[in-house]
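On to my pick:
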Amino acid sequence: MSASESVTSRLYAETLAAPRADVRVNSAYLFRSVLASCEMIADFLTCAAGMFAAFCLEHSLYFGRQVQYSVREAAAVCIGVSVLAVLLLHRNGAYHGGSSLLQVRETERAIRVPVQSVLAMLPFSFLLDLKSSSEALLIALVAIPALLIAQKHGFTAVVRGLRQRGRCIDRAVVYGVKATGKRVLSALSHSVRLGLYPVAVVDDNLPFNGEWIPEMGYRGRRSVPVLCGPVTSALLQSCQCGTLIVALPNLSPEKLAAAVDAANQAGAQVAFLSATELREQQWTEAIDVDGLSLTPMLESFDRLHYAIAKRIVDLAGSLFLLALFAPLFFLIALLIKLDSPGPALFSQERVGRKGELFNMYKFRSMRVNAPKYEFSPITARDPRITRIGRFLRRTGLDELPQLVNVLLGQMSLVGPRPEMPFIVHSYTSEQRQRLQVVPGITGLWQLSADRAFLIHKNIQYDLYYIRNRGFFMDIAILIHTLFFAMQGGV
């Protein structure tokens, strides 16, 4: 075994398990998204059925004056009330996954929102000249909440049954034993739609070690063990933890950084009870869980539409560029072979997202006898670089084979540059944040004046991208890269 391989095996004995944990978290998040969509559809159909039942009951019970409704008018009122109800429920956080211990809040919302929707529909009916008697609206004020309450309890029962069968559960570890930690434990246990299943509580105080913490509530009480801190990657992996919830508001910066670092190494997500630690983070969305504000850290609950759009662009872009540059690939390979002995392509092990190792491809720009794992040359006069290699590195053409890595999903068109294992081995906690996202061919660092220096020594570019990334920022970086390459600056 080579020296590089031995270093890799020692360094990533723990972090190589991260992709599997990340898959669990992503599947749990996808499951929550599907549940939210299904619940929206169910609420829409329930409210429409309640409004339609009100029209039918008014006609069959001979309440008041008999109003003849056309199919168009009845459908317009039913759809209008249902759309308003779903929008109000979404605005009130009904689809965020949180729940209350006794589901009183859900019942209150199921009563209040239909009433608001029916009353809000009155002026629209008048403006659109839609027939709707006061008797039908009064019946709807009773029928819709009754149906919605029954549907909500039935939906929760179905989700609870799926969770009990272990469908897409995200195992959570709570950091902190005190009253707040106990409340988090109870809130998560009852928020079945959220899918965060608490399996352990970690505390740094030895007196709590070995105890069991029961959840609050008069039924369905369960307990979880208290494990002695500090939080380490080995401890989180032993619990098969997908999310670490920090429930200690006054945790020191050193302990907080150590806990986040351990979670990153274990492939677990991090969430806080308040947003005070995340003032500079822009990719956060607080989740209300029984009155508690649970704030995921940075990329804990990644925006699904952005991830899908990014992958589509990567696939389409890499396929198009590989087909477009196929003749250029052949020409560059021929020039490399004529310039110096050795293969035209160069493969090197790099570190990707969550510490996953992959082989990155490049056109060979250095001599065959050059060490495979060393810091990259910072000047074109480096004796390791071949004549054609100087041209390739100056124009960035040596990076073109990485389009294959993009096609395989190991890299993206835009993202932090992947580094060699021996460099990642010396990363600080701040620098390790680069491993939270898929590495890319180009990024902000490549467009900066600091590209001549070590990547991880100029971490501000990657951190800025991680905190502010989005579909349009990726497109902007690709456009800037194109003009930068045309000027010979890559």
